[in-house]
Amino acid sequence: MQGHGDNRHITVGKGPQSHKFCSNRVQTTKFSWWSYLPLSLFNQLKKFSNLYFILNMGLNLIPGINIVSPTSSIIPVIFLIGIGLVTDLIEDLRRFYADKKVNNVPTQAYRDGSFQTIPTLELVVGDLVLIKSNEEIPADCVLLASTEERNVAYVNTMNLDGEGNLKTKHSHPFLSTILHGLPFDTNETTGAVSLKMDELRPQISTLKGDLHCLQPNREINQFAGRFEFHSKSEPASLSTAQLLLRGCFLKNTQYALALVVYTGKETKMQLNSRKSKGKFSRLNRRLNWSVLVMFMLLLFYMFLGAGLQVYLNNSQGSDHPYLATETMNGFDFAFQLLAGFVYFHNNLPTSLFVSIEIGRFIQMFFLQWDHQMRDESRGSDGKMIARTSNLNEELGMIRHIFSDKTGTLTANKMDFKRASLGHSVFNTDLDKPPRPRVNSTVSVKSEPREIFNGMSNTCEHQAFKDLAHLYLDECVPTYLSNPSSTGNNSVSPNLPPAPGLPSPSLDLPPPPTGLPPPPIGLPSPMSDLPPPPDDLPPPPADFSPPIQLSAPPTYLNRLDSKYNAFHFINALLLCHEAVIESQLDLKLLRGEITAPPPPIGNMSVNAIPENKSSVELSNLHVDANGDKVFEKIYQSTSPDEIALLSVIAKRDICYLSRTVDTIEVNLKNRTHTFPLVALLPFTSERRRMSVIVRLADGTNRLYMKGADSSIIPLCTVAEQEKAGDVMESQGIVEQFHNILASIDDFSRDGLRTLAVATRLIPEKELDIFKQKLKTAQEQLVGREEATAKCFDELEHNMELVGCTGVEDELQEDCPQTISFLKECGMNIWILTGDKVATAVNVGFTCGLISRDTIPVYITDDSLKEFNETRVKMGKESLYTEHVKVGSDTDNLKLPSRLPCKKAHEDAGLTEPIQILLDDLLSEKIKREETSRDNNNDGGNIAIIADGYALNVIVSSAVLVDKFLKLAELGVGVVCCRIAPMQKALIVRMVRSRRRDIISLAIGDGANDVSMIREAHVGIGIKGVEGTSASQVSDYSIAKFKYLKRLLVVHGHYNFYRLSTMIKYSYYKNLSFCTQFVFYLVYTLCSFQVPYDSHFISFFNLLYTSIPIIVTMLLDKDIPEWLLERQPKIYKQYRNGKSFTIRTFIKWLLLGWAVATFLFFSGMVFHNYGEVSKNGTVEGLLFYGVMTGTAAFTGVSFVYLWKTQYWTILIFIGFILSILIYGVGSILVTVVTSLGKDFYHEFFHAFASPVFYLYILFTTLTVAVLFTIVYYFEREFCGDVKVRAINTYIKGARWPHKPIKQS
Q1: pLDDT (tens digit, 9 = 90+) per residue, 887-944?
Q2: Cβ atoms within 10 Å of 931's Cβ, excluding its own
Q3: Other C-beta atoms within 10 Å of 807: how many?
Q4: What are the DSSP calls for 232-266, one per residue?
Q5: Which residues contact residue 1195 at a Cβ distance below 8 angstroms, ignoring those fewer than 6 apart?
Q6: What is the pLDDT of residue 511?
């Protein structure tokens, strides 16, 4: 990080930089040509299996220890390490060619007075680059100019944040005085755009100065800079609004000129490309301790062999002189220990690790190839993606599911349903099909109902089109017509750009002459207008009296229906971050072009208005009838904004575009321009957005839209009620509470609510705000905090004018999926930022909370009520008082409308929570015991907690334990009003206190990323909010319903297959290697080997490994359809029942039993074997071939016995294993260089009837042994899986194809 201290200094237009910055080369390769071999070898040495084989090879090269042929120990080392070296080489070559492609992309950089084409890797900090439309931005740059109006550029940031909508960037206004845009010509024939270089070069030559900015950091939304121009006295403050990030694409902009500020590894994309910490399966931990057990067993065998040899040598050496000639000492004992390691090294199935990695890797592709987890309607976006193979079996052991609500349980297809303005509720469902309407004034109601004379909370329900008609036909002609101008639809067009994060400049001219001066302070009803303050500034010298209208300005009367209607629609129309990506769509909305009308029969009507060109339907977002599809025309990071804009646009209120100083709209086919004074952007901390525009009368109006919990406390009525001194009129207070009542009603119906507020900004206050904001934006360090503080100081004394209710319908089969997962024993948590009532309603509709479930509320407001009630009632249990049976949503205990202070600020909540949890736990446990005695359900509970209460709970380990215990006794938890970081905190809380369980987090948006990374298994849904969650997840799916199949089918199969592979591997090694122990004792610990060295090495590595890998991929213990019908199977096996200490010991005992049987039966058959033709009895080598082949056939039978779902591939794997064993045996017995001692020994064995009789006898005996074990487990162990299969077998045979579910 080069530069001065905390800042980076870049010179512009003054030659080379004073500091050397890093190059723009992208390098993702791990190795160079000279470091590949040593580093790759070092990586291979980190693997336990490779180290184990290398140790065995090294010992086997020492004379006196090399019990087996050194060649047989070298081959596994070369094989395993060779595979690793080749894999590293292939992967790194792929990275190398990808880097080469990226680094050599041609880029135009300004050097030596002209633009030259150079490779991207040659860019340096301080270069001026010219970027064309649809090109990738080659480095992190500051936008200087573009070919678009007001130097605006549009970028696609999909590669960075996963969001597909375009982001608007613009250069600093000061640059417009130096670079007057990029001059260009347009070819009238082809439409191609070319720059006028002769005009551009002189402008670039005048661009000289110094840029100071922050050092490189990983925060994508953080950038602060200061451009000091040599020709300007004041510096220009730069922010993220001017930053173009590497990896983004320039869209809908012909050319953009930018200054490079960060390159190479210091770009934000590279800084964020670091891998997250790895996740490992819990089965790996079980595998580790099982390996430790086997290693301890190996040590026992080593000490047993060495100790017996020392004992026999020292005590019986005189009787057996061939053993030794001298007494053995400690050194000899250590030497024999090493010999024992070589002798028993196959006791540890080192090939298991390689087989597991191969199997997991292929399983990952099986997940992606499952068509039942693919949404074909979405093309490539509908595919399942597995980004890791380490967690495949974890999917079968999930205990807790943490789910986002919006876009995860819901479809994220927002539908604007209702709007409340206090006096009326407007319902879009009441709108009738559009009819041609004449240009006449339309009133909302012929007989409007006055609701402010009394305290009525009942609002009129009207069609939303009536609100649109009121706005267009009565409000717009009155409020948007400038009295001082004629025929002009724009107001104050020459304003400077808006301040805020995107645009810092704020030098506003005084209001236009001939207009009334802007009101100061908070407006109130005409009858309640406060007297003007004493410190009112004198009117300007050129001030003229206001033009007298025929009627008083009714929009100052806040109780007038037109007042709320005007400002409510304005807020929806102006306060958002949506854009129109297609320029053709923008021209269509402006009326510059038109789409051809739909065909009539086989003929098309070409009625095109004059001076307008027709465009093909395929190039526009219109339906078959030529009607505009606004849901596709508008693009935004928030689906709520698209829903709101689409509804009003269908009623002739269309948003068009926003520049740095204006907002363009189309009202009833007439274009209007709102001067943009300031923009206060949305952040996750603020949870609201505000804009300040100048209206036709010259006043500055702030419009705010966002979460009701963040807006309501800023309203005047709320502030006065909190202070206990309400100064507003009764009508204003009643209107305020009517809107709050509508928010509760909308939430109770499951709608997402947003509050809308406004405020008149006096000119004096605006000047103070401009000065503070300018000071804050000149800071390089702490700019975001200082800017946010300026925003907070301006956003107060708000007028609540309305609220919206947006419906987000549930995803397909969401209730059925959640119901099944609950029956699987999973504890489901819904984590959302919505209101309590909204979240609880979704909990009911999605099936988490059923009608017989008791909702338990642990919220900020309910806890205060609980505390007050407990004070009155003493120490009696308040379980029945606090809990309400959810027989109907009206019974749900809602918090009070006005949010109270946060719980972590109220120390009095800690004790009530602890007492409440104690009461709930004791009562729930008592009910559970009573229900068991009466054989009935004790009543399930569902916890509803908000972020305020959770802040208190997570601060105490005692409260966390009690809360989690209560949650596990219930069916689920609904966490409301929580921020994105609280989601991760909740997951971390459960993981840290419940280390024995596996958690899963699923979400679809950028606010779910931290939660997904924190959980054991992270699932991302590729939805409307982008692919941020999908990109960081372990597995990505298209719909929530696919989670069921992913867990209960693939999760169960993966865990079953992997655990079977581990048990089988231990069994086959023990059944073969335990014979060495008996043979060691039988030969007086001489470490004599009865097998060929190559047979010992290949038995574990090659002969018996192929079938188990195939089985690991394809075997099925239960049909898929039965798993999807029987949730109890998953519930029992989610604890890892397929691989426990009991099953591990069982397979160890089976391996020892088979090995004991093979050894002693082999001795019997060998002692009573036949005599060869030359009169000799077959010796040691014949015994080795016979028992080794018996071990292979015994292992193969277990493979057959354990396989429960035969396919052609499993059959091929079995046959291939036999062929490899036969070919390998023939090679060893024929090629003298491979097996000198075993020359033709296999042929002798294959020609002996005793050999075949022994193989048949041992195979049948092993078959009987395993059959007895299988039926004992099936009939007496009470296995749910076995009972499910038995139930199925009684009614039908095992299907070759899944039977369709009814």
Answers
A1: 333 333 323 332 333 333 444 567 777 777 887 777 777 776 665 555 445 457 888 8
A2: 13
A3: 19
A4: -SS-EEE-GGGEE-TT-EEES-SEEEEEEEE-GGG
A5: 1067, 1068, 1071, 1072, 1104
A6: 39
The mean pLDDT of 708-718, rounded to a whole number, is 88
Q: Using one digit for the tens of pLDDT, what is the confidence trace for 581-595? A: 777 788 888 877 776
More confident residue, 227 or 1174: 227
569 touches 648 (CB < 8 A): yes
Tokens of 954: 């997570």
285 CB burial (10 A radius; 0-12, 13-18, 19+): exposed
| Residue indicated by tokens 């953080």 | 222
Which residues make Cβ contacts (< 8 Å) with residue 465, sequence separation at least 6? Answer: 431, 432, 434, 651
Distance CA 1098, CA 1081 (A): 25
Which H or E element spans position 946? strand 941-946
Cβ 674 vs Cβ 491: under 8 Å: yes
Question: Edge to edge, what strands does the sheet with 941-946 contain?
Answer: 385-386, 1035-1037, 1017-1021, 998-1003, 398-404, 827-831, 972-976, 941-946, 854-858
Q: How far is CA 983 from the centre of its chain?
A: 12
Residue 150 is predicted with a pLDDT of 75
Residue type, 653: I
Q: Give the Cα-Cα-Cα angle 1207, 1199, 1104 (nearest 5 degrees).
A: 105
pTM more than 0.85: no
What backbone torsions phi and psi does residue 1011 show, to the nearest 5 degrees? -65, -40
Phi/psi at 1004 (5° precision):
-130, -10
Sheet with 653-658, edge to edge strand ranges: 460-463, 424-427, 410-420, 799-810, 752-761, 700-706, 688-694, 670-680, 662-667, 653-658
- 1157 half-sphere exposure, CB direction, 13 A CA radius: 21
**Residue linked to tokens 């949503």:** 889
Q: Which residues contact 35 (CB under 8 A, 6 or more apart)?
A: none
Distances (CA, A) of 183 to 19, 176, 199, 378, 1136: 33, 12, 7, 41, 69
For 842-866, letters b (16+ CB in 10 Å) and e give bbbbbbbbeeebbbbbbbbbbbbbb
Both tokens of 522, joined, read: 């908070």
Crossing angle of helices 783-794/763-777, nearest 10°?
A: 170
Q: Encode burial over 1185-1215: b for 16+ CB neighbours within 10 A, e otherwise.
A: bbbbbbbbbbbbbbbeebbeeeeeebeebbe
- What's residue 362's pLDDT? 86
Q: In whole angstroms, what is the distance from residue 1019 CA to residue 283 CA? A: 19
Tokens standing for residue 819: 């119901």
Question: Which residues pair with residue 155 across a beta bridge?
Answer: 167, 250
pLDDT reported for residue 244 = 92
Nearest-angstrom CA–CA distance, 1104 and 1195: 8
Helices (H), 1083-1238: 1093-1098, 1105-1114, 1120-1123, 1127-1133, 1141-1167, 1180-1202, 1208-1230
SS3 593: strand
How far, in Å, CA of 681 to CA of 683, rounded?
7
Alpha carbons 734 and 459: distance in angstroms, whole number: 12
Q: What is d(CA 220, CA 268) in angstroms, rounded to the nearest whole number?
A: 6
In the sheet with 152-156, reading across from the earlier edge strand, the strands are 166-170, 152-156, 249-251
Helix (H) or strand (E) holding 747: helix 730-748
Contact 692, 704 (CB under 8 A): no
**What would the two tokens of residue 512 be?**
């236009």
DSSP state of 598: P
Beta-carbon contacts of 18 under 8 Å, excluding residues fewer than 6 positions away, are 9, 11
Structure letter (DSSP) for residue 788: H
Secondary element (H or E) of residue 975: strand 972-976
The per-residue pLDDT for 616 is 53
Neighbours of 527 (CB within 10 A): 9
